[in-house]
Design goal:
Number of domains: 1
Helix content: over 70%
Number of strands: 0
Number of helices: 5
Strand content: under 5%
Order of helices and strands: HHHHH
Shape: globular
Structural class: mainly alpha
Largest sheet: none
């Protein structure tokens, strides 16, 4: 999954829009089977390396919003540190509207 996400974020979004949509839908269907900490960690790392466009960031933020409650539930003691890590990504998405 990590390699696929990196490939998508490094690639030209216009050329890979259909591929991204398919991967996004697959992630949405499997979001409750994914380790939330690993997913969030990989997503944040990948987005820090490759700046996806606004529409893609909004979609990725939606996935984070879906998995966030599970992350809190599974790692309540680490939630404050996760919030600190997620906040810059959240603010960036919200600024772009």
């Amino acid at each position: 999954m990590a390699e696929t996400m990196e490939h998508l974020l490094m690639s030209s979004w216009s050329a890979n829009q259909m591929l991204f949509r398919a991967a996004y839908k697959a992630l949405q269907q499997r979001i409750y089977c994914i380790d939330p900490a690993e997913f969030c960690d990989q997503l944040l790392h990948t987005c820090s390396l490759y700046q996806p466009d606004d529409e893609v960031q909004a979609d990725l933020y939606e996935l984070l919003a879906q998995i966030g409650p599970r992350l809190y539930q599974e790692e309540p003691g680490a939630w404050s540190s996760w919030r600190v890590r997620l906040l810059p990504f959240t603010e960036q998405v919200l600024r772009r509207g």
